[in-house]
Each structure stands twice: as structure tokens, then as C-alpha cells.
Amino acid sequence: MFSKILVANRGEIACRIMRTARRMGISTVAVHSDADANALHVEMADEAVRIGPPPAAESYLRIDRIVEAAVQTGAEAIHPGYGFLSENADFVRACEEAGIVFIGPNAHAIGMMGDKLRSKRGAMEAGVSTVPGHAGEIADAEEAVRVAEEIGCPVMIKASAGGGGKGMRIARTLEEVREGFESARSEALSSFGDGRILIEKFIENPRHVEIQVMGDRHGNVIYLGERECSIQRRNQKVVEEAPSPLLDEETRRAMGEQAVALARAVGYDSAGTVEFVCGQDRSFYFLEMNTRLQVEHPVTEMITGLDLVELMIRAAAGEPLPLTQGDVRLNGWAVETRVYAEDPYRNFLPSIGRLKRFLPPEDGESERDGRRVRVDTGVREGDEISVHYDPMIAKLITWGPDREAAIEAQADALDAFHIDGIGHNIPFLAAIMGNERWCSGRLSTNFISEEFPDGFRGAEVTEEILARLVTVAAAMDHMENMRRRRISGQVEGEDVTFSSDRVVWREDSREGYPVHVECESPRLIRIRPAAGEERVVEQDWQPGRPVWRGRINGQPVAVQVRRVVNGYALTHRGVTLELKVYTPREAELAALMPVRDEVDSSRLLVCPMPGKVLSLSVSEGDRVKAGTPLCVIEAMKMENILRAERDARVVSIRIAVGDSVSVDQILMEFEQDES
Prior knowledge:
With 675 residues, the chain is α+β, with helices and mostly antiparallel strands. It folds into 5 domains: 4-103, 3-Layer(aba) Sandwich (Rossmann fold), CATH 3.40.50.20; 132-201, Dna Ligase, domain 1; 209-451, D-amino Acid Aminotransferase, Chain A, domain 1, CATH 3.30.470; 463-490 and 497-590, 2-Layer Sandwich (Glycoprotein, Type 4 Pilin), CATH 3.30.700; 604-672, CATH 2.40.50.100. It is built from 17 helices and 40 strands. A 9-stranded antiparallel beta sheet has the order 14-13-10-11-12-15-23-21-20. The chain has an 8-stranded antiparallel barrel with strand order 25-26-27-28-29-30-31-32, surrounded by 4 helices. A 5-stranded parallel beta sheet has the order 3-2-1-4-5. Helix 4 packs antiparallel against helix 5 (107-113), helix 7 (141-151) packs across helix 8 (174-192) and helix 12 packs antiparallel against helix 13.
């Protein structure tokens, strides 16, 4: 077994690998760019080596510097994590030439399966079911249009060397094929240095299901069940679960056996994932093979009880797999959500800045059905979320004895996950957990676009959620009032009386909810609404805490809290409401207050994210229609097309190609098109 390994990655996956290595008694070496000099993975490692400036191309993608770091520190092996160089056959060869073991598959397998064109041919030869498409490289946009005409729209345009949703586009018309080809190739060149593109038939209403395989260097290969990854946005996974609610045992076995057959055909000898696109009828077709550890591997670990990183390390050290296919057992259900630095209320655009507060839920087993929570992260409070790297902050994984329990555990954990300082997608993830279609398992890769066609504006305010938030607001207000009285020296008695009647005022709808509050003890409060049943509140909260935790009628509840004048902005289950707590007289006066008109910004194109201007599609004086592309902004390695919201004429353009732009910067001005 190795005594020291180098982790050629950053963020949560570097920290996750180091945790396993530490448990195995293996010391670790971190590599870092200048931007990551004080990162958590650097702090966790036994040694750290600087490998370059912030851009990945000058640091985490520099094979020579990483190999040199391993040689200098005496590391016997390198684990690449995922992304960066994890599927680079040249990196494997460079490690071998330096006498360093690569903890991952061999160069031949990576070369065969890491290239989408070659992997599809290999899958066909191995007898794996494949999607109809063009098996060759597409030279230019015109050829892409011709191929799409032959296959028939809709088609999937994707980078041969791609991954993580980069370089992928769905085109439903030939014009979208032409536009999508150029955009996908540009993104592929920027992200992977490889602009080759292929085109396949797009399966309507598809599901994304993948099989985890594990091999060793003795010819053994097994599969460890499947993961459903259908909840995606821009071809990037957002929520994953294991097992899949789609599959039955027969389909699971058929997919697993095909995945193993493909792995055996290329001599696969580590952890890998064979991805399939599935029809709702359980038909399945090979999509690609990821020759690395997947982001979503924790859900497989949760239901199998296996540590995939440990299996990879042991396989790389020459040990045989410690189990056979017959030993694999799937236990319970696991759900993973990806917590991203992005603003779901602004079309999920990237957000950067400092984590002023970062309070994830605690890892471990809960008191309910043995449910478990796991948080994989590479940041801590005070860290900076940089424009240079992927926007994922953390992965939140929950386990339960069945799917319903795992989803409930996930919803509870999201409610307790507090982040301040940057935009994040926790409210959106919480809304998914409460979505009826998700809960019933009726999934497809179109889920987000179909369930949130106009973007995310917050989850539906159900009667139960509203009742919980009104109850929490009243309980917190009562506790704060008691605290103020104690501080001021006031004592309730015959001479001084305090009204226990309050009105919880909902600011967005300008409605009031009268309640009567009775305090049995500092921690036990009874809330009697004017309409509805009494609610008994047991709370463990102190003013200033950003998360309210307690029980309402015996059920555990967590609510995000932000103080506002006369009340609180509360977030729970993806709903955010501003609730103010008034006396009955104050509520009467609040109802008379005028409503402030919103500012009209329709004549401006405001930058929704920090980034760099890659291209401009219009000039001053141009008339544009709603939906017309105006410019492309690159942020966190993704290209974002900003489009016109309505018919207008471009009056002025305040940016140029190559400019760095900030959030809320005015990019263009318009006037209404009267023609």
C-alpha cells in the first residue's frame, strides 16, 4: 500500500479523497494555484505545493508541474479526482514515465472511453445498445446542419472530449443546430482544448441513468447499482439519487451487465461510470463512459456501504477487489443535491464573493428512522468563491430506509443549510424536494424546464408552509420581546401588562394573520391563530442565530432567518416570505401604508453576473426582436448568451469584447421599437 499520495485537484473532491487517505493511514500532498493558497484542501493535506497562477490552464491543468510536485514530495501515486486531468491519457502516461502510479483507469481505457466518438464505436462492438447518430467528427456548421437533416431534429450536439454539461446543446431546428454547433465548439475548445463535435438523435422525454462500475488489475469488474441523474439544468446535473425509481431488477441487471461488458472490452481497472439515456418504457441506450470518479458517487456509497475512493486506491496498489458481484447489496435510498454559487432568482447566473456565513447541517445519523446526513465540501466560512473555478460549494447527501424518507431528510437538511454573502441555489433545491412530480418519481431531463418554465420565483406557498412561517415569526417575536423586557428591567405583574395578541403581516400580499401567544416557559410557546388549530412550539433559538430550529406540534422544523425592520425574512422549503409582527393597532396602520412602485429597468441590459465579454452580436442603432442574442458573457467557464427581452432599438453599447464586467453593470441601453 502507498504511504503518500498527491491529490491533483481542489475543492470538495480533494478534501473527500484526503479524508479516505487519512483513514487508511496514507499521508497526502495538495497542489494549489495562487487563488487557492489558503484553501481548505491545502489546510487538510500533510504537504502542499504551489503549481501556478489562478487560471486552471496555468495550474491544475499543467501536467508537468503536477508530476514534478509528486516527484519532489516523494508521492508514490496521484489521485486526479474528477474534472481537470482526471480523464487525460497523456497525464497517465506522464505519471508512468515518472514512476508514479495513477489512481484511476489505464491510459488505453481512458483513450477509448474518454473520447465520445471512439467510445460509441467501442460500445457498438461490445454489444451495448447505442443511440442513433453520426459516428464521425463534424467539420463545420454546414456539415452539422446536413447531418442533423439526415438524423432528424431534435439532435444533441456535444463535444467529443466534453463532460459536466460543457460543450453540449440540444437543437430542435436547423438554425439552432448552426448556432449550437459554433457555441458548443467554442466552449469545448475553451474548456478542454479539443473542439471536435459529434451529433446524435435526441431522445424525447429522456431519463439519465448511469451504472457505477469498479474494476481491478486482475481482470475483475463488477457493477454497483445505478444512479438516476435526470434533474439537470443546461446538461449539468443538479440532483442525483440511488437507486433509480425507474428501474426494475431485470432492467438493472441488463444495464449492469452491458456496462461490465463494455468495461471488460477496454480492460477497465478502476472506478468508472457508464451513462445511459433511458426511455420512460425502460429502454436504454449508451450515452458515454466517464473514466473517473463521478461527482455523484456518494449516493452509491450510501446505499452500498462501500468507499469508492478506497477501492480505487487499493486497485491502483494492485490489490484485487474485496467483493464479487454476488456480494453487492443495495440498502435503502440516497439523494444528493449540488449546492452551487448561483442565483436561481436571476436565471441561475453565477455568483462570486466571500462566504460571510457558512453553516452546513451536521453530518451524522438523525433520530428519525436512522436517516443520515453527509456534507462534502471544500470551503469554510470566510472563503472566497472565485470566478476561476466551478461554482459548486458543497454536496448534500441524505440516506433513508426508502425514497420518501431520503427526500424528507434532504428537505430538512436544506432548510438547515445556511449560506450568506453570495447567491446560492438552496431555495431552488428545497423547492424540488417538495415538487409533487419529483416526489412521485416521474422524472426526465426536461424536468426543470417543464416545472419551472418561467425560471425560479420561489416554491409554492402552501397553507402548511404559510402556517409554519407565521408560527415561527410569532414565536421569535415573543422571545425577542421577553428578552428586551429582561434587559430593560421590566417585570410582568399587576402594574405592567403586555398584550399577547399579535398580527403577523405578510408584506408581499399585504395580509395579516392574527394570533394569540401564550408562553408556558422560555422554550415552550402556544400559538393560537384566529383561524386554524393551536400550534405548540418548542424552540431552541436565540436572537441573532441565522437558523431557527425547533418543533411545531412535535415535528422538527428548520427555518432560515434574516432580520428586517419589525420582523423577519424567513426561508423554508424553498419559500421566502417577509413577515412583520405587529400589535393589532400597528397592523391597522400598516394596511394604510402606500406601496412603492418598482423601478422600470426594461430599457437597460444589466449584467447578471461577473465575467468576461466574449462577443457582441449587435451594434448601436440595430433593431432587435425579443429573444435576439445580444452578447455572450463567460463566467465560471460557462458561456452565457444574454438576449433581448422585448422588441427594441439599441441606443448605446457600453462594453467591448474582452472587457471584464461586474454584477448589475449596465451593458446596453434601448428604446422601444416603434416601427
